[in-house]
Amino acid sequence: MANEQLQVLNALDVAKTQWYHFTAIIIAGMGFFTDAYDLFCISMVTKLLGRIYYHVEGAEKPGTLPPNVSAAVNGVALCGTLAGQRFFGWLGDKMGRKRVYGMTLMLMVICSIASGLSYEHNPKTVMSTLCFFRFWLGFGIGGMQPSTQPSSFDWAASSSSSCPVFVQGFCRTVGVPPTPTTPAPRGRIWELQGCFHGFQGVVRPRRPHCGSATGGDYPLSATIMSEYANKKTRGAFIAAVFAMQGFGILAGGIFAIICSAAFNANFDAPTYKVNALASTVPQADYLWRIIVIVGAIPAAMTYYWRMKMPETARYTALVAKNARQAASDMSKVLQVEIEAEPQRAEPTANAFAMFSKEFMHRHGLHLLGTTSTWFLLDIAFYSQNLFQKDIFSAIGWIPPAETMNAIEEVYRIARAQTLIALCSTVPGYWFTVAFIDRIGRFAIQLMGFFFMTVFMFALAIPYDHWTHKDNRIGFVVIYALTFFFANFGPNATTFVVPAEIFPARFRSTCHGISAASGKLGAIVGVFGFLYLAQNKDKNKTDAGYPPGIGVKNSLLVLGVVNFLGILFTFLVPESNGRSLEEMSGENEEESETGTVELEQSNYNNRTVPVRNRVCKREIKPSKAKSMAKEQLHVLSALDTAKTQWYHFTTIVIAGMGFFTDAYDLFCISLVTKLLGRIYYHVEGSPKPGTLPPNVSAAVNGVALVGTLAGQVVFGWLGDKMGRKKVYGMTLMLMIICSIGSALSFGHTAKSVMTTLCFFRFWLGFGIGGDYPLSATIMSEYANKKTRGAFVAAVFAMQGFGILAGGLFAMLISAIFEAKFKAPSYEVDPVGSTVPQADYLWRIILMVGALPAALTYYSRSKMPETARYTALVAKDVNQANADMGKVLQVDIEPEPVRLPKETVKSFGLFSKEFMHRHGLHLLGTTSTWFLLDIAFYSQNLFQKDIFSAIGWIPNAKTLNAVSEVYRIARAQTLIALCSTVPGYWFTVAFIDKIGRFTIQMMGFFFMTVFMFVLAFLYDYWTHHLIGFVVFYSLTFFFANFGPNATTFVVPAEIFPARLRSTCHGISAAAGKLGAMVGAFGFLFLAQPQDKAKAEAGFPAGIGVKNSLIMLGVINFLGLLFTFFVPESKGKSLEELSGESNEHN
């Protein structure tokens, strides 16, 4: 297909990023800038209009737009947007993108100015005029696409209301229709007549300026940018056009703040409470007009450049069928000579029409995917007006309206909304721009819908918790995260994808249909949920509304809507890195025009496609291809092999060490609790016995020390002796020492603990050895396409170990509790620990050896990896024979046997090694070290987590066996909610997103959540549920982040003869960090007051400061990640440079 692409289109696809790309972003994005500016400012304008035109003499609250007027202002804009998207989308395909592109911008300019000049003699005519121009403004640029800002409301909480303030904010959304009056304009220009009966404790929605949607500009801007962009960074460019809304938000906010501050300084006015009439100065009527009119200036400034843009090459060549004109236009844009096609392309016989049978066969499901996901997204996004009052109240930046004058209210709202935008909406845009071409559209959209679902259920299920005023901060954080992931998710991708996957002659139309579907969802979200969210009790609904399903059920419905978005996302194809013609199948349609021979060449740092040697430039094969040609046959066979059964058996065999590791670490906390009751019971103590701090530190510490030693020793041995020769040793050590730990008998507590520590050291030694060996073996067996997922899956076997440990501990403790009844500790301290409990912990530890024992035979039968045999042992024929059996194919022998030593070989830590891999090793060791400091510090919070869940009562109210059961159940729950999903998210996305992106993302969110825990620490001490949520999110992103990638990457980027050693060094650095996290922070987190520190500990810096330090550590991890190269999709030899060594 690619070979049949027109050369002018290939020139665009492979062009490097140039200045014209950025000018196209600005020109195409100015409609979105204007849209966001207008919609940011409109809520303040409608606030001011309410005070000016709907003031009621004697009312306790300032005037507001009546609900029917507010609904009209909202509704006409939405209708205008929907109509404009559909109409201009169709027109863009019929007449060309350029011909109608200027119309949309001119509509914006004219209607923005006209909206500000809506003068008349009474409120009704002013509102009618304003609605008229806002319809046409929506027609040109749209009404409210979910992307810029949250909704805005007139609100006032009545102190006499019986409802909780938060519930009022949810349930009272439109307000009661006022008694019909004929209010007249007032102030120095007009006098007020008539009256209006207001309502207290009611939230009346203003025009929700929750974002922007371009009506005509939507399909045209998206289509133009997609057709101008190169395929490598096309997603970022289209998303950047959409993200121009962010600059529009900031411009609108800053200008409104400046303008209102200037008016407030020059036209002093009392608050509404002091003087209702004088609180709105006559000059306020000019303020809203100035703010609205200024929004037209940026659009007007880019009108000329829109008119000068040439028609897109894809429309000219593929729709207008004039390839010569397309070549001429793009030659000027790209500043290279593109020779025209031999002849003018004629319409092909197999062209099909919109909605024809052929169209539905090729693109029907794709169109269903883009329309349904956009529809579902906008339902969820626009429903946010239910919460806006509570957000502003929680921030505390908007006092009651009656305590401000009109201009001050504009200033306060602008400031608060700008803050919200800066914290969630705007960053979401630019995260998408930064990662869309790394992660891909599909992954970002799936991730966004997933987190929106999670956070919406987090709001819905503990709804009663959020209704309390003290819990609003947690609500605001989850709310902000929801809309961060909307923008770093489907809000951007639903805009990008429809501009890429449809044929050129339908592209603008299909984008318009998709966007219009979204606008239909917006109408459901804005107005439908006003009815749905009404109270189930008819007597408690807002006047004029029937009973609904209540706010909690509405939130559950929104969670389901987001989940449906996840499902429908699977209908949307991934377009990352593919040309528009590949996505749409247009090369197949144009196959009759002849074949195209493409070459790549370098000219002035610009890559240009060449057809039949159009541009006479020297062809230089890429380094990657040169390396690929030199790769040994056996290694190439492994790299290109399809996923087969042996891959999965290797995952199980290699991952069993991690299974045992996780099983042991999960169970040891149960065991140490039980050991404390059995061996360290103190007569007369009000609490059960526990291991003394030094004994507890020894039991945990020796395992960490053993692991560190094993990682270094077995890492080195794996390179010196071969992976297979030492691989069985690690598993045998685990088996023997798991059994030995369980058989730690002695006459005294000290001797039992000493024996246990001895075996735990060697158990750690074996587990440590499995780190470098398993990672290296799996990386050397895997194909390069899914290598990341396979290595991560080995590490993720820990998840099964956790679950197995939890389930077995629960099962066996339940059996013991049923068989050997015992009272609680407070009833009978001695009888609460039955003698048989001494067998319980031994059985739990011993069973951990069984899975390892079952796979020992399979490990011993595994052949040595081909990369060690061929590249280190230099026996290519043996490697061919071994892998021929594994792959079940005949591998062609190499023409010559490799010499035992190559000229360019270098040793570990040699000058050449440090030059080639020094920074990489620094990156892998430092990031693993920093991660494990943060990861292992979780023991600071374990007690609070269990208390918040409520599944572990006070130890003295339980007997020994019951405590084991309770702890096992609670830890299994935590693992299921955060740790285990994180592992498998990494497995699912590591080869789509890439190692670098996942690690950056993980460290970023760990930093954010750690600072959230730190700066609001005093708040969390009283709100443990919110703490649990952030704790779980932190460790979800640790596992769907650096905890997995730090294990994967060192097994890929170093030469075969040093791979296991370097992985062992990296892992050992991590274990050193684990010691700092597990023990160092026990001291650091002690209170600053020595009198309050735990017995035997000196004064520390306190938990809050420790959390801040952990946030800084995670941020350092983010920075050191830049030393780690991306290994996705490359062979191990490309990454390590070994192909060059064997040149």
Automatic annotation (TrEMBL):
CDD domains: MFS_PhT (cd17364). One of its GO terms (molecular function) is symporter activity. The keyword Transmembrane helix applies. GO terms for cellular component: membrane. It is a multi-pass membrane protein. Signal peptide: none annotated. Residues 24-577, 650-1129 form the Major facilitator superfamily (MFS) profile domain. InterPro entries: MFS_dom (IPR020846), MFS_sugar_transport-like (IPR005828), MFS_trans_sf (IPR036259), Phos_permease (IPR004738). It is found in: Membrane. Keywords: Membrane, Phosphate transport, Symport, Transmembrane, Transmembrane helix, Transport. One of its GO terms (biological process) is arbuscular mycorrhizal association. Pfam families: Sugar_tr. The chain crosses the membrane at residues 20-42, 100-119, 235-263, 286-305, 419-436, 442-461, 473-492, 512-533, 554-573, 695-714, 726-745, 789-816, 839-857, 972-990, 996-1017, 1024-1044, 1064-1085, 1106-1124. Belongs to the major facilitator superfamily. Phosphate:H(+) symporter (TC 2.A.1.9) family. This is Major facilitator superfamily (MFS) profile domain-containing protein.
